[in-house]
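Hey, I was hoping to borrow your eyes for a little while. No rush at all, and the record is pasted right below:
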Amino acid sequence: MFFQKAEFGDTMIFNIAHLQSLTNVFTSPINFNYWNHSGSQINLFSPWLTILSGTIFVNSNVTYGFSIYLTLITFLTFVSAYVYMNRFSHDTLESLLFSLIYTLSLNRFVQVFQIQRLENYLVLIFLPMVYYGIYQILKNQRWYNLAWGMSLIIWTSPYMAVGVLLTLVPWIILMIFKGISHHWSYWGRLSLSLLKTFGLVVLTTIGFLVPLGTKLLQGKLQQNPRNNFNYVKWFDQLHLSQIQQILLIGIAVLSVLVLIVIFMNSQFSYKLIMLEMIPLTISLFVKTDSLVVDWSRLVPAFQSILDLFLAIIVSRIVILIFQEGPGILKLLLMVATIGGMSFLIYNQADQIHAEQRITSASKINYQKYVINYHDRAVEGQNQFLVNNKKASVSYYTKANDYWIQYYDPQSATMDIPVQKYSGYKIQLNNENVRTTKSKRGTIELQTNPGKSIVEIHTQYDWIGIISLLANLFSFILLGYLSLTKVVGKNKKISNKS
């Protein structure tokens, strides 16, 4: 359906260019072959670890490769939702219902077909892991699921990580109403688990956070507020009659009453989810431009979290209604859910009138595509300036390397359309040369009289190298601790049996 219906515009071109440019990301955050050879620093501002797997698919065949990659993401979203819901509810039918509703939800459709930012729907794989992880920690059980989940979310979408964190804090506070927490020993064990989780999450994301922090210290992060869907405006444009408005209010009141009944008869964990849904729903209607802090980029994160919670509650309500029914009724329920959700997705996709589809993806030169991603990559325009005048200069790029050849009888000031970065090693005629930053934020140097051969070689600076190495060892440590806990649990089970 994505192959036939989805629009293939700038966002999709950005996704594929980003994936293709990651071939050298372990040795340098800069790839001179891409982003119009501007030395774009996107990999210092945007996490890349979890999307790295997509590079394999799009570097072979863009059209079919990305479609297969999207199919794989959808499958993993379904599996993740089922596995963690099954561990939470211990009910196979409820887990299947939840995974279907979550994977085929309208929110995920919007993320894939309309907004189209890869990280926005890739991160949905890890949300069930995170919330199951906090559920375990609040029960004084294993902590590493939360550590893995938060680490993978930060490596995918930092704004989602902030949104998740803002929803987890109230849960910890609300635990004072649970009998298990009425002992100092509980809060001691909880504090220790949270401390271990926090430490491992920081260490397993340090390869992204430290280089990003270094860039932020060098200059203010520039970004425009996000234009999110305006639910109030959308509702006003429906132009409902008075009878329709009364009917809608009646349905809303009835839904609230049903939720109150479910709330009163649910476990404490479901009550926490339902309470959290109230501020999340309100956040979708608040005008972000009226706030002191730019809240606009957190709204999509809150929307995805609300979608997760809504899928949990809906599947729970359905199970409570049909739990005493015969097996054939439950089978029909599954068929109806699959059919209904599939029809909804197809109906929404059929309304998209794409001017360009993914079938034309192979015709695009992704190396020439460039945007300002919290940097000034566009300003260079791949145009050399010599003594502040446009000049034709011979150059060649290969991932980490950029070679320039220029001849002038006299020494000249050359402005190279590559953004200045501390990880560059720049030589002029095989000798290190002093460089400055031009008004465009690019590299500026003084050439020698006659023939000048400029070489720019890029790698991570020493801060980036240390951070990535620390990140690698931290992942190994987290993996070792997780396996130790799993093996220890299995031994205890085998001994009891």
